[in-house]
Amino acid sequence: MLPIDRSVIKNYHEKLLGVLLMAAPFLGLAQNKTNFEIKGKLDSIDVPMVYIVHSQGFKQIIDSAEVTNHAYRLKGYLEVGQPTVLMTYNMRTTKQIQPDGIALLFLSPGTSMVTHTKKFHDITISGPAGYNDYKTLTATAKPYEDKNQALKTKAYELLKQKDTITANNVYAKQYAFEQGFMDKIYGGFIKQHPKSPVAFFALQKLAGTGHSIDGQKLKPYFDMLPSNIKASEDGQQFNKRITDAITFNTKGAIGSLATDFTLLDTAGHAVKLSDFKGKYVLLDLWASWCSPCRADNPHLVAAYNTYHKKGFEILSVSLDTRQREKAWHNAINHDHLTAWAHVADLDHETNSVVTLYGVSGIPQNFLIAPDGKIIARSLRDGDLEKQLSKILNN
């Protein structure tokens, strides 16, 4: 049986309860296409419904099945094997998902036979390949994951006590430990089992959950995967993340010559990045719908007001599309950003500058010197003013 990670269970209590309540009217809707089936058997367990939660691209899919004579059947579609949550929950009588009511498994296309014994989370599985590899990998990784989390918790507690020096030392130790065991456990698994359905899951774990990934390190692992996984929607999205990360650390790297582009401003006039050559210019990527971007806008205003007369300019590139053109204009006015140039790629879902510089998330920015070279990037929370102070106050 697959061991249940209690930290995962704890997180699912509230999150999945909320998801279920919000999605309740839509549960059980038929899939447009199916390629997996779960035939479940509940030995001596009385529950009214079973729910399944898995991912399809960036979407979370939730479906349900009624339990009849201690059996249920779930069908759906997925392109690649992935960790999946089965749960039981009576919306009318229960106000919290219980640990015993959640089972974690690795699901692949095909028919899986799932038997729940004694408790709902006690499962045995037969069917498509992947489950045993997943069970082995997660069991191997667990002591490392636990130690890594303990280091994070220790550093966080030290920060709460305002012991920043010791906290930073612990964070440095934690980061080095994390990089080491991730390469050893997840990277090692991919090298040893590149054709396993679990290899793509291992690659996602190796990449981490943040926007910033090491594309150069991950690309050789991605290239090892089976062609059907690389060609899947999830595979293509992941490959784009790798490509963007490589671009960000080449074309968008500090010391690189900023790549020129032309976009239209709010009045429909063409504006080139090269129009600003000879000045310090911040290439700022944002959007009207991006809360962190909007929160950082006062720093841009302060920097512009302080350093514009000393040769500083801003070129803001919005990721808003034609549908949100009015919201883009309103945000510029509301945030008092009218003093500098604003451009957008309104008629394309993917902004051309995002692709050009390999940007994986906003807010993002690049500080470009008069000679056209990038000298800083990812400046947030007053970092821009500090950087300009060093450059323009000397």
Give the strand order of the largest sheet, numbering strands 1, 2, ... along the chain.
10-9-13-12-11-14-15
Strand content: 15-25%
Q: How many beta-strand segments? A: 15
Q: Residue ranges: pLDDT <50 for 5 or more in a row?
A: 1-30
Mean pLDDT equals 87
The tally of structural domains comes to: 3
Terminal CA distance reads 66 Å
CATH architecture of the largest domain: 3-Layer(aba) Sandwich
Name the shape in a single word.
elongated
- Put simply, the count of helices is 11
Secondary-structure class: alpha+beta
> For the record, what is the CATH homologous superfamily label of the largest domain?
Glutaredoxin
Description:
The chain has 394 residues and is α+β, with helices and mostly antiparallel strands. The chain folds into 3 domains: 6-128, Sandwich (Immunoglobulin-like); 132-248, no CATH class; 262-392, Glutaredoxin (3-Layer(aba) Sandwich). Helix content is 41%, strand content 22%. It has helices at residues 6-23, 131-160, 164-192, 199-207, 215-224, 227-231, 233-248, 291-307, 325-334, 352-357, 383-392, and strands spanning 36-43, 49-56, 59-66, 71-76, 82-87, 102-107, 110-117, 123-126, 262-265, 270-272, 280-286, 312-318, 341-344, 364-368, 374-377. The strands form 3 sheets. A 7-stranded mixed sheet has the order 10-9-13-12-11-14-15, covered by helices on one side. The chain has a 4-stranded mixed sheet with strand order 4-1-7-8, with no helix packed on it. α8 links the parallel β11 and β12 (312-318). The longest helix is centred in the middle third of the chain and has 30 residues, at 131-160. The chain is elongated and about 75 Å long. The model is unreliable at 1-30 (pLDDT under 50).
